[in-house]
Every structure is written in structure tokens, then in C-alpha cells.
């Protein structure tokens, strides 16, 4: 079922919005169905169809009642109090909504608080040191890349997807898409194995590349892709004095529904940039504003957010993709070409989804900006790493997407759990989508070596 995402820019009718904001999702759904039976403008019809998908998702994103959230914190944090949770709720560091009039916290509220509050991390009952090790590993790469002028790694990965037992419908065909590396800073890409055999593998240059499976699985079969590639990145140290006065205009347009130059985005861009004319300095001002002011926060499903960059600008919080989209939108609003990249962050300490941005400055060409990695470095006082992630990227990535909101090849029939990005995969039966909570994914780093 194709639903045009650009209609998210249409406002909801007041009565539906009131019910949604109070957490009466059933009532909001009822009013939507009532309106859809009437003669209404086509734009409103499309907006309400989108809202039905959002309502189906959003309640499941906030499973913790206040008491359940408090128990989770007290089970893991020494001497954690009710007053602390209230404080985190009130200053919006713990993401919450109303569900049937009661406060409910996001599924990832706990991880977000631990990641962004050193005082809580220090009080963990069971503390892991993997983040410290990964930080040192990244610092070593920053130093090496600057000294050698480049960095290159060989990476061999396996990604797998498996339906949860309660989701399996025996004897029925399932369609699965799993992300694959694309041709960019990555080269020598080899698809080593797919299990079962993939029906179709998209071209290396496809902006959201996948291996597509269509089969009746045996029992509860695991779908997997195994691949290797080389990742090469040169070190960029751009000089504002060498920036050309004439800059290109590609990748500076709006792209509905998120990359939109709303009045607030325009005002914010003007405030950040001021009278500056140099494109490189303008981009750096935007990078500095986001990394210094937008707090890192795990997010609910992107499909439930009406305007992602404006969400970040208004709330001054967001995860890697939210911050990257704000950077892209502000850059484009300022006339600086900017675009999306995403896939996986890959080290021996962790493999998981990650998003970042690219921006173009003549005569240097395309460069990188990793807002969340840069922001993390800034908060920890690591100025060298903070500066590095403006213009540069580490090679510990698997890039699967070079554009946001791009259709698969072959396309999905039903609603995607993430209609903007693809890092963990998507699947569906012949009569409905399979939602994110209905399947599990796993990433295995088989080999990584410096070249």
C-alpha cells in the first residue's frame, strides 16, 4: 500500500489532534475512519491514511508506565529516586507521551539516559567498559588518519533476520529485504553468501541497496547475507581561505516531508550563520550549533515524527539520524549542498545502525559530518575528535543508503517500519507488513583489518 509521505505536512483536524495528544489513540483512530467515509479533500484523505499508520506504531513505542520506568531505573542505578525520574521527564531527557491520559516512557528511555548522563553511568550496578574502549579505538584512528593522510580497512560482515515464533505463518510466502553495501567510499564489494538464495540483489549504485528474498521458509528459517568490502577515506583539512566564491546549487532543494525550509528553520539558519558568506565557515557554524546544543537522545520510530529536522530544532534533542537531517536541512537552507548517508557503525566492540551527513564545498568536493559522534566528543571535552568529524569520517562503517526516503528495488508492497532509511531490513507477507517488533536482527563482525 503506497502512501505519499509528503502529505505529513498537512495538519490534522483539531478533534483528532486533541485525542492523539491525550493518548486516546483508539478514539483518534475512530474519528479518522469516520472522516474517511465522508467526502473530504484528497490531501486530507492522504494525511489521515498516514496518521492511521502512525497511530498503529506510536503506542507500542512507549511501553513503560511511570512506575515500570522507575523500577527499571532503580533495578539498575544505585539510589535512584522518584524525584530524579520526574526531573528527567520534566526537562525532556526521558522521552514520554500520554497513553490514555497516563505518562508512558519510550522503550529506549533507559539507554538514552545512561548514554547521555555520566553521573547515572557512574552509578550503574553492572557497568560495561565497551564504550570507553570504542572511544579509544576511534581516537587512535583520528591520529593515524591525520598522520597518514588517509585510512583504509577491510571489513567482513554477516547480517541476519529472523521472524519471532509468534509471527511465523507456516506455509506462507514471506518477502524479506536485507541491506547491502553500496558503491561509495566502499569498493571491492563481494556478496559472499545469502541464505536462502536471494531472489534479487540490487545494483551496487542503487541508493538503498538490498538483497531481496521471496520464499516459503522452512520452519522458522533465518535469512542472512554475508559480504565483504574495502573502505577508504582520505583526510580532509579544508582551508576557508581556499573556498571558491562560486558554489554549486545541486542538493540544495527541499525534499518533502522533512527537508523543508519552514519559518523556524529559516530563522534558525539565519541566527546561526549571521552575515557569514564563506560556505565552509557557514557549514562549520551549523555543525558547531548542533553538536553543542542538540542533546543526544534515542528516538521513537521515525515514521511517527511529522517533521524530523524541526523536531530536533524545537526540542534540541535527537539521535544520529535526527541530528544529521537537521544539519542537512540547515545546510540546504543556507545554500550548501548536503545529503544523507547511513548504514552501520562497525567495530569489534559494537555493530549497529548509524546515520550521518555529507556536504559539498568547492574546491574540496563532498566531505562528511557525523553530528552524533562529534557531539559526543564535544561533551566529553575531546576537541580533536570533535573537529575531526567535521569534514571527515572514520572507515568503520557499512554504507547501505546514499539517499533518504528511497524505495527498494524491487519495492515493498506494504508500509515500511522505517520509510526513510534501511539499516536492519524489512519484511512482509503477501497480505500485510511484518512490523519491527515481530522480527529480530543480528550483526556479526567476522573480520576487520587495517589495509
Please characterize this protein's 3D structure.
It is a single chain. The strands form five sheets. Strands 7-8-5-17-18 form a five-stranded antiparallel β-sheet, with no helix packed on it. The chain has a five-stranded antiparallel β-sheet with strand order 15-14-13-12-16. Strands 6-9-4-19 form a four-stranded antiparallel β-sheet. The mean pLDDT is 95. Among the domains are: 5-61, no CATH class; 64-122, no CATH class; 153-233 and 424-450. It contains 14 helices and 19 strands. It is of the alpha+beta class. Strand 17 (426-429) and strand 18 (433-434) form a beta hairpin.
Tags for this entry?
alpha+beta, 14 helices, 5-stranded antiparallel β-sheet, 451 residues
Topology:
Layout: H1 14-21, H2 25-36, H3 42-58, E1 64-65, H4 66-76, H5 82-90, E2 96-99, E3 102-105, H6 109-116, H7 118-122, H8 130-148, E4 150-163, E5 174-179, E6 186-195, E7 200-201, E8 210-215, E9 223-234, H9 263-273, H10 279-293, E10 295-296, H11 308-315, E11 317-318, H12 320-333, E12 338-346, E13 351-361, E14 365-369, H13 371-379, H14 383-388, E15 390-391, E16 397-401, E17 426-429, E18 433-434, E19 439-450
Parallel strand pairs: 10-11
Antiparallel strand pairs: 1-3, 2-3, 4-9, 4-19, 5-8, 5-17, 6-9, 7-8, 12-13, 12-16, 13-14, 14-15, 17-18
Helix pairs in contact: 1-2, 2-3, 9-12, 10-12, 10-13, 11-12
